[in-house]
């Protein structure tokens, strides 16, 4: 369970958790500390399945718009938004939409492992570390993205939302974010 952080918490209030349960695929299974329970995996997957399909891209886009609502300055980090200036409305930016979907899918894909551990391929993790260092992403941004993610899921599937559901997504996100942050340190 995540340490008291909620979608209402101030952005920079969390410290980075150690990526205890993040397992690089090459590691032997014994190295995994399974803090992400089967129940939590089920919760994340059930929300993901409910959001899947036609409106998924719209939900993912809402997620990104929410990030910029919380932190407008974050726009400057995205090369494709910088380059296009204010000419293209955010809503219809194809690259933004594609990116939003990728972040969402990446988050969800980590849950598809049978063991319940968050697993990320080493090459993917390395690439994500490098990309985010290059883009100037800082720890506090991860909190903004987390808040936006939780808000978006709550909006998308209000009937499924519960403290347990929230906790499961928080745990999944925290583990993935911790793994990316670790890679960012190495890449810096
Ligand atoms: C667990 C959290 C996150 C995941 C899974 C994630 C995922 C991704 C992915 C898949 C890419 C595409 C590039 C690549 O594959 O290397 C990317 C790029 C990027 N991400 Fe994230 N991201 C996360 C958190 C964040 C945060 C907190 C920020 C800061 C607001 C951020 C900002 C960016 C930027 C600026 C790019 C480069 C876009 C460009 O200019 O082309 N990401 N991210």
From TrEMBL:
Its cofactor is heme b. It catalyses: Fe(III)-heme b-[protein] + nitric oxide + H2O = Fe(II)-heme b-[protein] + nitrite + 2 H(+). InterPro entries: Globin (IPR000971), Globin-like_sf (IPR009050), Globin/Proto (IPR012292), Leghaemoglobin-like (IPR001032). Transmembrane segments: none annotated. Residues 35-185 form the Globin domain. It comes from the Eukaryota. Keywords: Heme, Iron, Metal-binding. GO terms for molecular function: heme binding; metal ion binding; oxygen binding. Pfam families: Globin. PANTHER family: LEGHEMOGLOBIN-RELATED, OS05G0517600 PROTEIN. Homodimer. Belongs to the plant globin family. This is Globin domain-containing protein. It comes from Oryza barthii. The lineage of its organism: Eukaryota, Viridiplantae, Streptophyta, Embryophyta, Tracheophyta.
């Amino acid at each position: 369970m995540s340490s008291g952080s909620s979608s209402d918490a101030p952005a920079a209030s969390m410290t980075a958790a150690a990526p205890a349960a993040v397992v690089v695929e090459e590691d032997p299974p014994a190295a995994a500390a399974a803090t992400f329970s089967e129940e939590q995996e089920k919760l994340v997957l059930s929300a993901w399945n409910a959001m899947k399909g036609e409106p998924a891209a719209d939900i993912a886009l809402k997620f990104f718009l929410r990030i910029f609502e919380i932190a407008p300055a974050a726009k400057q980090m995205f090369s494709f938004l910088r380059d296009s200036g204010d000419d293209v409305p955010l809503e219809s930016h194809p690259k933004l939409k594609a990116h939003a979907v990728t972040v969402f899918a990446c988050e969800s894909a980590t849950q598809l492992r049978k063991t319940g551990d968050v697993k990320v391929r080493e090459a993917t993790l390395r690439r994500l570390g490098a990309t985010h260092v290059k883009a100037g992403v800082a720890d506090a941004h991860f909190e903004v993205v987390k808040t936006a993610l939780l808000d978006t899921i709550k909006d998308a599937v209000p009937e499924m939302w519960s403290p347990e559901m929230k906790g499961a997504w928080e745990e999944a996100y925290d583990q993935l974010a911790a793994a990316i942050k670790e890679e960012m340190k190495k890449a810096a």
